[in-house]
Amino acid sequence: MKRQILFISDGTGITAETLGHSLMTQFPGVDFEERRYAFIDTAEKAEELRQQLLQQPGDDRLILLTVANQDIRKTLLDLPGQVLDIFSFAVSWMSKALGQAPEQHVGHAHGMVDPKAYQRRIDAINYALTFDDGLGRDYAEADVILVGVSRSGKTPTCLYLALHFGVKAANYPLTENDFDSMNLPSMLAPWKDKLFGLSIDPFRLAQIREARKPGSSYAKLNTCRMEVQFAERLFKRYRIPFLNTTETSIEEISAKILSVLKLEKPLY
Amino acid sequence: MKRQILFISDGTGITAETLGHSLMTQFPGVDFEERRYAFIDTAEKAEELRQQLLQQPGDDRLILLTVANQDIRKTLLDLPGQVLDIFSFAVSWMSKALGQAPEQHVGHAHGMVDPKAYQRRIDAINYALTFDDGLGRDYAEADVILVGVSRSGKTPTCLYLALHFGVKAANYPLTENDFDSMNLPSMLAPWKDKLFGLSIDPFRLAQIREARKPGSSYAKLNTCRMEVQFAERLFKRYRIPFLNTTETSIEEISAKILSVLKLEKPLY
After folding, report:
1. pTM, rounded to two decimals
2. Strands, DSSP E only, in A140-181?
3. What is the set of domains in chain A, with CATH numbers?
4. B267 vs A14: CB contact, 8 Å cut-off?
5. How far, in Å, CA of A206 to CA of A221, rounded?
6. Is there a contact between B94 and A103 if contact means CB atoms under 8 Å apart?
7. CA nearest B257: which of B175, B185, B162?
8. Does the model's ipTM exceed the 0.90 cut?
9. pLDDT tens, B32-52?
10. Of B1, B14, B26, the CB nearest to A18
């Protein structure tokens, strides 16, 4: 079953699309065809979109709206399809709960433009880039240090933690030297409470490494199997909490890390 | 007016918090105190949370739920506070619109764990890191090339575009050499359609640079003013679309770029 789903917003459309993706997981049998229409922030753009959709097939399309402006919303409610005006619904609820009328301007919901918060995000990104892959010297400033074998997902997770939570995340790659001694690398030893391990299925790891360095011994299944085994043994030996990233998205890994290390950070 | 707002989920909580932040922008007079409770995915955890909240003040707290599991939801609906079960509401709507019953498992809504999509994201992140700050040689593979003076927001935007949209984004810093000639840098000339400029208020730029290199001539207001002026002149001369990032979040900048360059990429 094929079905169009449209995310329409007078802002970035990120809220509509994020909610939409959550909803779509509940209907795995439907083959959704997604479109995002962001920054529909004037009556003209709204009307133009309406005309455009009227000329296309798909009157049974699903439409998720997150629009703050009343006038634009009127036109959009009238779009050809089944419209869920989720934002108005939630705003009304909140207005009643708070006993306050809402402001109807397009919100800076994402990333909060407050200069201080912005600076924290940027600092965290710079930190992740400086302390990537065992670079950098001193982990005193780190909120978390991700540990794992090469290509287990450390860098993207550090960047996500920085961008979305302003968390300073360093990462340290485990290599043969570490497995020979089976000791915690001396650089990490003073910061045991900040460590979090990433593990991965050796088959998946071999695939990822093969794509990067085809035919290398580094990408061989045996190498991967051995490295992952050693890494998990090290995690267990030093009681480092760890997570298998094979079936886990960057978002889930990040949220788990915050949850396990009890880092209370709001989402940007 | 101070008010607690809780984001509770059996998954990462990202959907609840994203929607919550959008809603909060509509009530700027309220001083919200946010808490996220992620991975509340067993009846025990739900009951534990209920007991915990019962012992804390704040019965007027707002609670945003995004929970797929029915049994857990029952407990959570009973939490002390005003509960908005937004996910159920939207799922019911969608179920009716589709004529299909929903599955009630916790969804992998974020980042889509499909290995191919994951690989695209990772490739895009590697691309952004390799082609950061004028590094890398050939922009043939780039989806977009961000151009702007140092510290105008290029790197965070490239990383966001990579992480969230799998967009391959390079960035090129404009420097004195470019301003002397007022020609488009030769590396960029073949890829005019992929260029997007970032500009920034000189005062804000001076602040950001000062935090990074205190007392440097690089951070002087005059330097910043001149560089920004030249950069904007260059953008106009070559008809490069550009955006002032001063009051714009990384999310908004990214969404604008996709919208202007008509890059149709779903959000991860």
Report:
1. 0.89
2. 144-149, 169-174
3. 2-98 (3.40.50), 115-260 (3.40.50)
4. yes
5. 5
6. no
7. B162
8. no
9. 999 999 999 999 999 999 999
10. B14
